[in-house]
């Protein structure tokens, strides 16, 4: 205990700041990790399909970021640098076979001419390369066969497109950065792709209230930079920020790295403009924190994955930027201690707590064994759980002292068995490197079955333990994730893929999650992938009402068909 | 400048805490204010209609709290202690004359018998006194003529009631604590009153995540006490907490005192159970911070004032309780300085800022002239604006030093002309007393026309100034409110009420608010009072969609008729 306390005190930092906010972070990490080129969110961009046209070959280069890797649910191919190399495959629920809905028309030359009149020649795209990229998601898991991509530049153009498509019963798929993980942003068959990327203007920013109004096609990273220059941060940050667009973020209700601190988009989005299937423009673009005049309809469009309307403009509350960041890496003897520590952290650190991540011993060992550059920050004792705590506040010395006092108190109380407080940016980065490196490490260890679940925190780890009992020696079961958000990443590793193992895992994992009132999709949405699994997390009556609302807003079902709702309901509602 | 800085430094507090959290606060205030018996939210309960039966006479005793007084929009009678005394009248938009919708049936003896079968004899109430109380809102502005009050004890009973009412086309009004301000919770004609107050069980509390699940009839103050004992606070606090129920809070999307810090109920409510008009129970009672499985339908019921369904259970995220509270009272030379100060406070105090209230010189003078016990905390210089800043954090000494540093910096930068930091609870209370006493002071000064508006912060005070130009010497125009929430309380005072003045104010005030994309109801909802004014804040297309959703969820329109939506749309949709 004393050693640990001493260690905590001795690692005082003078210049620690959030590595994700530091433009030099990438270089720092590289030098620290002796040549390892793992790319973090800030300095790399996830795969942008359009890049494929610019290269001299068709190699696909995906730089996996924390968010991406840990949330892949299908099979994919990853490579590093320029050499195409199959890294591994992820396993999980296969997508259901579906048939094209014959109610939808197919594109003809009159349609093309009409769209050219609305949008001009160059924004009506039939080029095969462009279409090929837009037809496929970045994981290369979902592939449509659209023959037409439209690039509107204004809400009015979106409205005209949808009004026409609705009258012709042409199905459409709204597409932002196409960085989704559940097949929500690519066509399933020949839907017309409406890409919002040309609508990328910032409309206004209120420096007093921190309220940003912009078009839906703005790339998240550009917005982050813009508000950063004004002294604010976006309440949303995720690995795909270099490509994803704010309209897509809102349509999928993206969670990301800052949710534990700033809450969900339902709390931060103040207003929206959206276009309905029939072309009606819904102006709900308020910029007010308080507005109780009628039903707050914008929430219907947050997380409905473009199936109720196309989001065209956004108003969002951005918090002020804070300068002081501290990171600690701790060991706990059991899961109960992790829970109690979270409770204490919320109380004692309260307003400065910005991350609370947990890692079980099995995940931790995989990192030490398989991740280049990963080192145990603690003396080599056996611990069952590890916790990474990050604080972000406005006063460095106060915040650090507060964190130190909290950690000492937690150690004296027995909640923490050992721990270290980062003394500089390199050490902070190395702590995050362990947490962020888990998915990659597990990939290297063999085949992996991945689940991204939201489960009440007191029950969360029971699933991991039950799964261990269930699978016995046939698989390694690992649990880690965002404890502060009750978000578990359940990873099951085997030497090679085995149908029998999958049958042991599913539907058990969904049924267990459902039984404990968890969510089978914590933050990625339903898309195509889980449209027929929504009943695991939502009651029949609720799903039926969703279908009725879909029918009300989009009677012909032209908006992002085959997604979100079970096929049976979508057609019969 | 130096004097002011010195004053700030000299007023260090050792034992300051939030008066609203201190059970002895009421006594402290009383002794401080030399016998003045202004009652604060914690120690008094707003008028509970049922109390009328218990008294030996019919005197109505309303203890006005900050929230209540400043938000009254109609005429009312107030008294203090036991003596009935007409205090004043508030003026504003008159309610529109409406006709009973003949589609609705009237109650007969078969109905009564049926309800007795469902609920038992004692929960089917026809007693005149009970009905008389439930037919009227606490302001005595709205009065219905219901002949029946039902008190279900479970969701199943609510479901059976609604299913029957829907089949018989009997209109209903859901009622919680009946503390609303827009006539949303009382019958307009003979609607059946469904009072949820018997459903007041706490179902669960997760001490790690702070997630509370309870029935909708729980009184807010009881929930505040319950989670307080667990080391948490409700993210919602308002003057009516002694009577209002959480189901009603959610149905009106109540704002309250903590919104600037913890955000709206759309961010804090994690799940709901609601019963639709046809008796269908929608189980959306998730307890997860992250859940992206389909449309997030609970938001439809937050703020829809019982017109889409009856909320029966609630899951809500409660933040950890923090112990350190500091209050400063400052003077600024102009409104721009107030705005800049808010920006600085958000940045420098960031995570500990819990209130940012502004008061203009006109409001301040009215308080000094009319409010018993009010004293100017600053030397008697002329200032144009005053700002009250409160911080709430987890470490008293750190937080206080942080606030002091911020204040000194703001004075050096010229944003603050003078200021004082409360040195003890009495001084903190006296600062809040000024802010909270404004509505009462204005009442004493004459007739008052009151508007509760949400306007983008940079434009907010323009309305006050334009109104001054518009009204000239005929009226005194005052502006104050929650600058941190962009919530303006516009008060116009005249020696006596005058139709000509009202005609000068309205519809100008609504048109101006609408033109600047403000809200004509910041936090009280639409109810009966503003059902025909909703178009000032919402577009025609949006209101039309609201009406379509109402029609979808409640085809017979039995739920809280005549409220929220314009009469024309409600019947034609």
From TrEMBL, chains A, B:
<feature type="domain" description="FAD-binding PCMH-type">
    <location>
        <begin position="142"/>
        <end position="321"/>
    </location>
</feature>
<dbReference type="InterPro" id="IPR004113">
    <property type="entry name" value="FAD-bd_oxidored_4_C"/>
</dbReference>
<dbReference type="GO" id="GO:0051990">
    <property type="term" value="F:(R)-2-hydroxyglutarate dehydrogenase activity"/>
</dbReference>
<dbReference type="InterPro" id="IPR016166">
    <property type="entry name" value="FAD-bd_PCMH"/>
</dbReference>
<protein>
    <recommendedName>
        <fullName>D-2-hydroxyglutarate dehydrogenase</fullName>
        <ecNumber>1.1.99.39</ecNumber>
    </recommendedName>
</protein>
<keyword id="KW-0285">Flavoprotein</keyword>
<dbReference type="InterPro" id="IPR016167">
    <property type="entry name" value="FAD-bd_PCMH_sub1"/>
</dbReference>
<comment type="similarity">
    <text>Belongs to the FAD-binding oxidoreductase/transferase type 4 family.</text>
</comment>
<dbReference type="InterPro" id="IPR006094">
    <property type="entry name" value="Oxid_FAD_bind_N"/>
</dbReference>
<dbReference type="GO" id="GO:0005739">
    <property type="term" value="C:mitochondrion"/>
</dbReference>
<dbReference type="InterPro" id="IPR016164">
    <property type="entry name" value="FAD-linked_Oxase-like_C"/>
</dbReference>
<dbReference type="GO" id="GO:0071949">
    <property type="term" value="F:FAD binding"/>
</dbReference>
<dbReference type="InterPro" id="IPR016171">
    <property type="entry name" value="Vanillyl_alc_oxidase_C-sub2"/>
</dbReference>
<dbReference type="Pfam" id="PF01565">
    <property type="entry name" value="FAD_binding_4"/>
</dbReference>
<keyword id="KW-0274">FAD</keyword>
<dbReference type="InterPro" id="IPR016169">
    <property type="entry name" value="FAD-bd_PCMH_sub2"/>
</dbReference>
<keyword id="KW-0560">Oxidoreductase</keyword>
<dbReference type="Pfam" id="PF02913">
    <property type="entry name" value="FAD-oxidase_C"/>
</dbReference>
<dbReference type="InterPro" id="IPR036318">
    <property type="entry name" value="FAD-bd_PCMH-like_sf"/>
</dbReference>
<dbReference type="InterPro" id="IPR051264">
    <property type="entry name" value="FAD-oxidored/transferase_4"/>
</dbReference>
């Amino acid at each position: 205990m004393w050693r640990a306390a001493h260690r905590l005190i001795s690692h005082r930092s003078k210049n620690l700041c959030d590595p994700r906010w530091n433009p030099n972070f990438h270089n720092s990490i590289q030098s620290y990790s002796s040549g390892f080129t793992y790319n973090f969110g800030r300095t790399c961009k996830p795969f942008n399909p359009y890049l494929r046209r610019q290269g001299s070959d068709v190699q696909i280069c995906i730089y996996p970021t924390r968010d991406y890797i840990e949330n892949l649910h299908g099979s994919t191919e990853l490579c590093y640098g320029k050499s195409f190399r199959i890294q591994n495959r992820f396993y999980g629920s296969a997508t259901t076979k579906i048939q094209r809905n014959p109610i939808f028309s197919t594109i003809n030359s009159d349609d093309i001419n009409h769209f050219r009149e609305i949008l001009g020649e160059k924004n009506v795209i039939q080029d095969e390369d462009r279409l090929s990229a837009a037809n496929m998601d970045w994981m290369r898991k979902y592939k449509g066969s659209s023959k037409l991509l439209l690039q509107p530049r204004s809400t009015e153009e979106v409205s005209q497109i949808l009004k026409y498509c609705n009258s012709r019963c042409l199905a459409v798929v709204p597409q932002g950065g196409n960085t989704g993980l559940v097949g929500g942003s690519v066509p399933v068959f020949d839907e017309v792709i409406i890409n919002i990327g040309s609508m990328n203007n910032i409309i206004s920013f209120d420096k007093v209230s921190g309220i940003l109004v912009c078009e839906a096609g703005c790339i998240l990273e550009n917005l982050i930079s813009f508000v950063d220059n004004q002294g604010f941060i976006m309440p949303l940050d995720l690995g795909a920020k270099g490509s994803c667009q704010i309209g897509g973020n809102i349509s999928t209700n993206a969670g990301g790295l800052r949710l534990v601190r700033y809450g969900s988009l339902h709390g931060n989005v103040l207003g929206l403009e959206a276009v309905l299937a029939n072309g009606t423009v819904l102006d709900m673009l308020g910029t007010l924190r308080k507005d109780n005049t009628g039903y707050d309809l914008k929430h219907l469009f947050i997380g409905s994955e473009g199936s109720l309307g196309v989001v065209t403009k956004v108003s969002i509350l951005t918090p002020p930027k804070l300068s002081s960041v501290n990171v600690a890496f701790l060991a706990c003897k059991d899961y109960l201690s992790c829970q109690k520590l979270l409770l204490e952290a919320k109380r004692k650190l309260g307003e400065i707590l910005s991350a609370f991540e947990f890692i079980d011993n099995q995940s931790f060992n995989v990192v030490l064994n398989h991740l280049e550059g990963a080192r145990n920050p603690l003396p080599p004792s056996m611990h069952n759980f590890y916790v990474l705590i990050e604080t972000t506040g406005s006063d460095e010395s106060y915040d650090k002292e507060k964190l130190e006092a909290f950690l000492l108190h937690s150690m004296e109380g027995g909640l923490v068995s050992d721990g270290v407080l980062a003394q500089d940016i390199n050490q902070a980065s190395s702590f995050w490197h362990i947490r962020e490196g888990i998915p990659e490490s597990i990939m290297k260890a063999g085949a992996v079955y991945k689940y991204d679940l939201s489960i009440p925190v007191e029950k969360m780890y029971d699933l991991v333990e039950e799964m261990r009992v269930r699978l016995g020696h046939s698989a390694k079961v690992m649990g880690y994730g965002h404890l502060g958000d009750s978000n578990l990443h359940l990873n099951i590793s085997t030497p090679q893929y085995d149908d029998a193992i999958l049958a042991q895992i599913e539907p058990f994992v969904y049924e267990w999650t459902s039984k404990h009132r968890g969510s089978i999709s914590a933050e990625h949405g339903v898309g195509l992938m889980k449209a027929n699994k929504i009943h695991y997390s939502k009651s029949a009556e609720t799903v039926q009402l969703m279908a009725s609302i879909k029918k009300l807003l989009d009677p012909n079902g032209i908006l992002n068909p085959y997604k979100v709702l079970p096929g049976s309901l979508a057609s019969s509602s």
